[in-house]
């Protein structure tokens, strides 16, 4: 089953020293990977735990290769919990169908 992760949890994990990023409403744990990232660890640290903006645009704007997108899947840990316009969490399962 796909884990639904609230934004607060993403923020908390980053405060605790992990590096979780959000791309296309999916949550990735790049704690170990960041040291190996060809674009450097700092860009990942700068965007970690952020939601507005999250890492989506930055990731796509770089024009990452197919290999990079394939690699991304290795770090997928869940789908971001949906929020309404007042950013209050809605407790419901995401419709996204992804394989973990
Ligand atoms: C888990 C997420 C990510 C993965 C797996 C990943 C992977 C990679 C890989 C494999 C490359 C080498 C070039 C390529 O194959 O495209 C790369 C380069 C790069 N990435 Fe990422 N990346 C991630 C997230 C990000 C994010 C969020 C940013 C920006 C905030 C970023 C910025 C860059 C930059 C600036 C380069 C260097 C481009 C160059 O100098 O040629 N990456 N990344």
Automatic annotation (TrEMBL):
<comment type="similarity">
    <text>Belongs to the cytochrome b5 family.</text>
</comment>
<keyword id="KW-0349">Heme</keyword>
<protein>
    <submittedName>
        <fullName>Cytochrome b5 isoform X1</fullName>
    </submittedName>
</protein>
<dbReference type="GO" id="GO:0020037">
    <property type="term" value="F:heme binding"/>
</dbReference>
<dbReference type="InterPro" id="IPR036400">
    <property type="entry name" value="Cyt_B5-like_heme/steroid_sf"/>
</dbReference>
<keyword id="KW-0408">Iron</keyword>
<dbReference type="GO" id="GO:0016020">
    <property type="term" value="C:membrane"/>
</dbReference>
<dbReference type="InterPro" id="IPR050668">
    <property type="entry name" value="Cytochrome_b5"/>
</dbReference>
<dbReference type="GO" id="GO:0046872">
    <property type="term" value="F:metal ion binding"/>
</dbReference>
<feature type="domain" description="Cytochrome b5 heme-binding">
    <location>
        <begin position="2"/>
        <end position="81"/>
    </location>
</feature>
<dbReference type="InterPro" id="IPR001199">
    <property type="entry name" value="Cyt_B5-like_heme/steroid-bd"/>
</dbReference>
<keyword id="KW-0479">Metal-binding</keyword>
<dbReference type="InterPro" id="IPR018506">
    <property type="entry name" value="Cyt_B5_heme-BS"/>
</dbReference>
<dbReference type="Pfam" id="PF00173">
    <property type="entry name" value="Cyt-b5"/>
</dbReference>
